[in-house]
Design goal:
The complex is a heterotrimer of chains A (about 675), B (about 325) and C (about 200).
Chain A (H helix, E strand, L loop, with lengths): L4 E2 L10 E6 L11 H11 L5 E7 L5 H14 L3 E6 L2 H14 L7 E5 L11 H19 L8 E4 L4 E4 L3 H12 L4 E4 L14 E2 L4 E2 H14 L3 E4 L2 E9 L2 E8 L14 H5 L3 E4 L7 E4 L1 E2 L11 E2 L5 H5 L4 H5 L12 E7 L1 E4 L3 E3 L16 E3 H8 L20 E8 L14 H16 L2 E6 L9 H10 L3 E4 L4 E3 L11 E7 L4 E7 L1 E6 L1 E3 L3 H8 L26 E3 L9 H21 L1 E4 L4 E3 L19 E4 L4 E4 L9 H5 L5 E3 L4 H12 L5 H4 L2
Parallel strand pairs in A: 2-3, 2-4, 4-5, 7-8, 7-19, 8-11, 19-30, 21-28, 22-23, 22-28, 23-24
Antiparallel strand pairs in A: 1-3, 6-31, 9-10, 12-13, 13-18, 14-15, 16-17, 20-29, 25-26, 26-27, 32-35, 33-34
Helix pairs in contact in A: 1-4, 2-3, 4-16, 5-6, 5-14, 10-11, 11-12
Chain B lengths: L1 E5 L10 H14 L1 E5 L10 H5 L1 H18 L5 E4 L2 H16 L1 H12 L11 E4 H17 L8 E5 L21 H8 L3 E2 L13 H4 L1 H17 L4 E4 L2 H9 L1 H8 L7 E3 H8 L17 H7 L29 H12 L1
Parallel strand pairs in B: 1-2, 1-3, 3-4, 5-6, 5-7, 7-8
Chain C lengths: L22 H8 L14 H5 L10 H9 L3 H6 L2 H4 L5 H5 L6 H14 L7 H16 L4 H12 L4 H13 L13 H17 L1
Helix pairs in contact in C: 8-9
Classes of the chains: A alpha/beta (about 675), B alpha/beta (about 325), C mainly alpha (about 200).
Chain lengths: ~675, ~325, ~200
């Protein structure tokens, strides 16, 4: 239903403002009396330039937009207020509508009466009054708006991908295959990520290495990919289309050009080191090593802290046996600068440290293993050649308990579901049973086997005779209460389907540990100017409609860095991120929001308070002139510096002090009775 | 001197006398200055909480209010008994967490002209104070008679490391504070995975078979791991393991002899204090073996219990003759 | 529960319980602190952790399910709260931070008020303890022990004798109660507290 409430009497303002109040179905209209609000706006804001006010069921729909366009054309509106949802959702919609009607899109202002009013209040009278106040503020603000033009920037066709796990590999290959250059930066000596450590992948049980290594090799040999392993991003300057990235290429102590990857150095190196990364602490490597025989690039690195030469000045076994003489003990870190247009972050996850749950005994009871350890134990290329044995290295377990949700779905550790653990645990149940014939117990809260062929795999594992006990395990102990339990690990749990506490003696316990963000995810986010959730996962632009972009233009995310996910989902997201980047590259240039902060140099005292605050690294300080400058292409218009500046020297385009003050004044023009607001 | 307000709790004056005696004996060398809360009352243990909420919290909060009246330069209240410690900490925490409870409890306290501001006191357990305030280094300096060769089983029970509202302890289930302290005293500390398992609490009075099974797990594991003596920080744990060990042995047909002492008693021994001053000999399962291992002269044996006489079930065992103060106390009762 | 025994002289009929949707809320609101009771995900960590679960008719988890189902009578008849030893293992392990022992205290109080307690041993013990504290301001073990054991465990007295004698001989049990000085104040506080509790 649309009321035409047109003002015929002349207003004392020069602006001709249209106010459009959206019902949003019942989202807004269920709490706010939108008809009353529209009537009020038409009558009471007349003297402030409002020439028309309308309400409509869905303003964002085509007919809704048409209303606005029609009024702009017919009534000559020069300002538009849309009181609806958050500008995050539909600002672009309404600005486009205005532009279609010939109005500068930045003369349109959205007032959020859904997120900030109807969704957070129950008192209809007070909410209606609050909506009026919000609109009053918007009207005052929009009167101070000026037409703005978007900033056009060119797009550098090269792309940086950070992280060489399966998500990063997928992104790199997609972009490189399309004919554009990719820099792939990986922290470890080889790409491959966690997937390279696995033996089998659920639910099809195909060999992880068999499906991954061809992709790794493609990356290694692709003419469009510059692979930088054993390297880390230190600094990101610039902005979408024109990033300048500083990368530290750590000294391998090996000349990658000369080295042939023959492996004799690893064979001859006398220093054995426990491999806490690739072998998850279960196996050994040498002080000069590649993580695995399938490493890409197949070039070793010297682990300086563990190398005898660096400790004692002698040894050089690797150097002596190296035929092409590729060992470079004096090699130093290199600092590279890469110029790229877009960045994809695919930095992956870390395994939850199971020692944090002492009642599960990891690190205290020898035969308690983590999921990653079991991946290595079951892997034919692993420390036991795929034999599933206990910590003594020889005994085959007869009974094995697999505990789900270790460190996940638990407010004491991580309150989220790690997504992959159910299927991973089912995979272990199958593999352990297949390799050892052991009786396997799975202890679960809920079996989450939600995707294609997953539940069928659950059926298969049930069919193989795996015992399922529904209950979160309370503790794993080696203290027996009777002779049956002596010498065993006892899993104490409530079997919730029976309603009784059970103590199940087993030989081996597998903790299906959850996934956690990288320890340094917060610093990485800061380096790239994006944000992390409370848990530490990178935040996507929109949880449903844009899980690939971030709030920072030109920075995309893929894989577990965004949240726990399995291999198919990581691959899909990696490919999606590549598609988004390719779309950008093809456009060759892009328009940026002109909402930017700028410094009024005369007012800047050079105090530098704003310098460290910018989340987008857009602020530079000119020592010579003692003033701060803001790079307009880098600035995202967040306003942090504007608020922080003690001299009031920073102003935001689209968020000028005049506009903000006017909005506050507009809000305060509404005298909401305190009684009406409470409750 | 480190100043603390002391909330001893009822058991320190009765079943856990050895704890109080030894605490007093080690206070001086440790430089602990403990000022008892004037006219403190029982914390209600777990019993009052089971009967009625508001009165239970008011009962606990009276102690907090009295203590805060006494607080001047120190706001730390130290409780050696774990149930007392937990109740004080719990009342303080819940009154903070749930302001409505705080308000109701203070309304009740107002009937006695008292008031307590939640969060204004720091509630600490004695072990926490010794390990973290006084410090293991200072303790080590006082050791003159290291407990060399003594296999000590550290046993904390439940209510001190859990739920640990204000994060004083290294872990809820495997805290290391007591182990470290005993190591500093020179003892051979047994790895005891049941160190924070429950002793059964009031179960000997409610469901004896439940209690005996819980005691059996604790005592048999301590015995299997070759412990000479268990060491606790809790009067209830001491009472159950010491007092009910005999009955438990009868119940299961076992023959365990596992003495249990308070950690303050071993600290006193290591500091060279006379066993008698430390309440040695008050335990029912004799800890004579501890003194023998260390070559310390044992105090004279407690006089043997009077011979058993058949009696009607109306009376408990015949008491020993009353002492003078006890008689006076009884007289006062009659007068009132 | 509604099935009649096969051989019975009198037919037994238990009418189906009416479900009380307010039960869960009532228990949560009567519990001190923020209990998080409504957050239970039925994972069984509590029942798995409980050292005395073997003697409970329902594990804590199932008891919470009964509360959620509004089965007031069955929940309040349960012996679970009385078997709980307040060891707090469940509390620190509970993934939802539910204050389980405090919920148990509430259930005990409610069971006594609803006269649904099946075994009076534990409530009697608590009440006797409380009586002593309300009388003297201190606990009085001798009085408590004699009153309680006499009533509930007369047969254990013979086995208990060595302990009782030992405790007395070592003066670890006082023959006479200690009374705090300002009993008047404590009584006034408790009186007001009871009035406030009754109002809630």
């Amino acid at each position: 239903m649309t009321d035409n409430i047109e003002n015929t009497s002349p207003s004392d303002a020069q602006e001709k403002i249209g106010v459009y109040v959206c019902h949003c179905g019942t989202n807004i209209a269920g709490v706010v009396d939108v008809v009353q609000v529209a009537n009020w706006a038409a009558q009471s804001l007349k003297h402030r330039g409002v020439v028309i006010a309308r309400e409509y069921k869905f303003m964002c729909s085509s007919p809704g937009q048409d209303l606005i366009e029609k009024d702009i054309k017919e009534l000559g509106l020069n300002r538009v207020i849309v009181a609806a949802c958050s500008p995050h959702l539909h600002e672009k919609t309404f600005r486009t509508a205005c532009a279609n009607a010939g109005l500068n899109p930045y003369l349109c202002e959205m007032v959020s009466i859904r997120e900030q009013v109807s969704w957070v209040h129950t008192d209809k009278v007070a909410a209606t009054e609050k909506a009026k106040a919000a609109i009053s503020g918007g009207v005052e603000r929009v009167r101070h708006h000026v037409p703005l033009q978007p900033i056009i920037v060119p797009i550098n066709p090269a792309t940086l991908i950070v992280g060489g796990g399966i998500a990063g590999i997928q992104s790199a290959l997609e972009i490189a295959d399309a004919g554009f250059h990719v820099y792939l930066v990986e922290r470890e000596p080889s790409i491959g990520g966690h997937m390279a450590q696995f033996d089998k992948t659920f639910p099809t049980l195909d060999c992880s290495a068999c499906i991954l290594t061809p992709k790794m090799n493609s990356v290694g040999t692709h003419p469009n990919i510059t692979l930088l392993t054993w390297s880390e991003v230190e600094k990101v300057d610039g902005y979408v289309g024109n990033f300048s990235v500083t990368v530290r290429k750590k000294a391998r102590k090996v000349d990658e050009e000369l080295c042939t990857g023959c492996g004799i150095c690893q064979e001859k190196c006398p220093k054995k080191v426990i491999d806490n990364v690739f072998e998850a602490g279960l196996g050994y490597r040498k002080a000069i090593y590649t993580p695995s025989p399938q490493s890409v690039p197949n070039r070793p690195v010297i682990d300086v802290p563990n190398c005898t030469y660096y400790e004692k000045g002698t040894c050089k076994a690797c150097d002596i046996f190296c035929a092409p003489k590729a060992i470079r003990f004096d090699q130093e870190d290199q600092i590279l600068t890469l110029n790229v247009g877009n960045i994809i972050l695919a930095t992956g996850y870390e395994l939850f440290d199971a020692r944090r749950i002492p009642n599960y005994g990891y690190g205290r009871l020898p035969n308690v293993f983590t999921s990653l350890e079991i991946e290595r134990l079951t892997n034919a290329a692993g420390p036991t050649n795929g034999n599933v044995v206990m910590r003594d290295g020889k005994t085959t377990p007869k009974t094995v308990g697999i505990i789900h949700c270790v460190g996940s779905r638990d407010k004491n550790y991580n309150n989220y579901c790690s997504v992959i653990c159910c299927m991973q645990s089912l995979k272990f149940a199958h593999l352990v049973h297949e390799r050892t014939g052991a009786q396997v117990y799975n202890f679960y809260i809920d079996i989450r086997a939600a995707f294609k062929d997953y539940d069928e795999f659950y059926q298969r594992v049930l069919d193989e005779g795996t015992m399922f006990v529904r209950g979160k395990v309370a503790e794993v102990t080696d203290v027996p209460r009777n002779e049956n339990e002596r010498g065993k690990l006892i899993i104490q749990v409530e079997d919730t389907l029976v309603g009784k506490q059970r103590r199940i003696p087993v030989d081996m316990v597998i903790l299906s540990a959850g996934l956690e963000p990288r320890k340094d995810s917060k610093e990485v986010a800061k380096t790239f100017g994006i944000s992390c959730s409370v848990n530490g996962w990178f935040i996507e632009k929109h949880p449903k409609l844009d899980p690939i972009a971030t709030m920072t233009e030109g920075i995309f995310i893929a894989g577990c860095a965004q949240g726990p996910k399995d291999i198919p989902a990581s691959v899909a997201q990696g490919a999606a991120a590549a598609a988004r980047v390719l779309g950008r590259i093809e456009q060759k240039e892009m328009a940026l929001e002109p909402v930017r902060a700028s410094v009024i140099e005369e007012k800047c005292s050079g105090c530098r308070i704003c310098n460290g605050l910018c989340p987008f690294n857009a602020i530079t300080f000119h020592e010579d002139r003692m003033v701060t400058e803001i790079n307009p292409a880098l600035c995202q218009g967040c306003g942090t510096c504007v608020a922080a500046c003690p001299a009031g020297a920073i102003t935001g385009t689209g968020f000028s002090n005049d506009q903000i003050m006017a909005q506050i004044e507009g809000l305060l023009m509404m005298n909401i009775e305190p009684e009406a607001v409470t409750a | 001197m480190s100043d603390y307000i002391l909330y001893p709790g009822c058991s320190m004056e009765a079943s856990a006398r050895a704890y109080y005696d030894s605490l007093k004996a080690i206070s001086k060398p440790l430089g602990l200055n403990l000022r008892e809360i004037e006219d403190w009352n029982c914390c209600g243990a777990t019993e009052y909480l089971s009967v009625s909420k508001t009165p239970a919290y008011a009962l606990i909060a009276r102690n907090l209010a009295l203590a805060s009246n006494q607080a001047n330069e120190t706001h730390s209240v130290v409780a050696p008994c774990s149930a007392c410690y937990l109740n004080l900490a719990k009342a303080d925490y819940y009154m903070r967490e749930q302001p409505k409870l705080g308000k109701t409890v203070n309304e009740a306290l107002a009937a006695g002209n008292l008031h307590y501001v939640p969060g204004s006191l720091d509630i600490r357990h004695l072990l926490d104070v010794i390990v973290y305030d006084i410090g293991l280094d200072s303790v080590e300096k006082k050791v003159v008679q290291p407990l060399t060769g003594l296999r000590v089983v550290p046993y904390l029970g439940c209510m001190v490391p859990r739920p640990d509202y204000d994060h004083h302890w290294s872990d809820h289930e495997f805290p290391v504070e007591l182990d470290f302290l005993l190591k500093v005293l020179g003892a051979d500390v047994v790895d005891y995975p049941l160190k924070t398992e429950c002793c059964g609490g009031h179960m000997p009075q409610i469901s004896p078979s439940t209690a005996f099974e819980m005691l059996r797990r604790l005592i048999s594991t301590a015995d299997e791991r070759d412990g000479d003596v268990m060491v606790t920080i809790c009067p209830m744990c001491q009472l159950n393991i010491d007092g009910y060990q005999g009955e438990m042995n009868q119940f299961f047909g076992t023959n365990y002899h596992m003495p249990i002492l308070f950690f303050t008693q071993l600290m006193g021994l290591a500091f060279g204090i006379e066993p008698k001053e430390l309440g040695f000999g008050l335990e029912l399962v004799s800890a004579r073996n501890v003194l023998d291992t260390l070559g310390v002269k044992a105090p004279p044996e407690t006089p043997p219990a009077p011979p058993r006489r058949p009696r009607k079930p109306e009376g408990l065992p015949m008491p020993t003759p009353l002492t003078k103060p006890q008689i006076e106390a009884l007289k006062k009762e009659v007068v009132k | 529960m509604t099935e009649a025994p096969l051989i019975s002289s009198t037919p037994v009929f238990t009418p189906p319980q009416t479900e009380d949707p307010t039960l869960l809320k009532e228990v949560a609101s009567r519990t001190a602190g923020i209990s998080n009771l409504e957050m239970c995900i039925q994972c069984g960590t509590c029942g798995g952790s409980c050292p005395s679960a073997a003697d409970m008719d329902h594990t804590p988890r199932r008891l919470f399910a009964l509360l959620r189902a509004g089965m007031r009578e069955e929940a309040l008849k349960s012996n679970t709260p009385w078997i709980c030893v307040s060891c707090y293992h469940c509390v620190v392990r509970c993934p939802q931070n539910i204050h389980i022992p405090d919920v148990m205290y509430t259930l005990k109080d409610m069971a006594v008020q609803a006269k649904l307690v099946q075994d009076s041993t534990a409530p009697d013990f608590s009440q006797t303890f409380v009586d002593m504290v309300e009388e003297y301001g201190r606990s009085f073990e001798m009085g408590l022990a004699s009153r309680h054991y006499m009533k509930h465990f007369p047969l254990r007295l013979a086995n208990m004798m060595p302990m009782g004698m030992g405790m007395l001989a070592r003066k670890r049990m006082n023959l006479a109660p200690t009374r705090i000085k300002n009993m008047k104040q404590l009584k006034a506080i408790l009186k007001r507290a009871k009035e406030l509790e009754a109002k809630q």
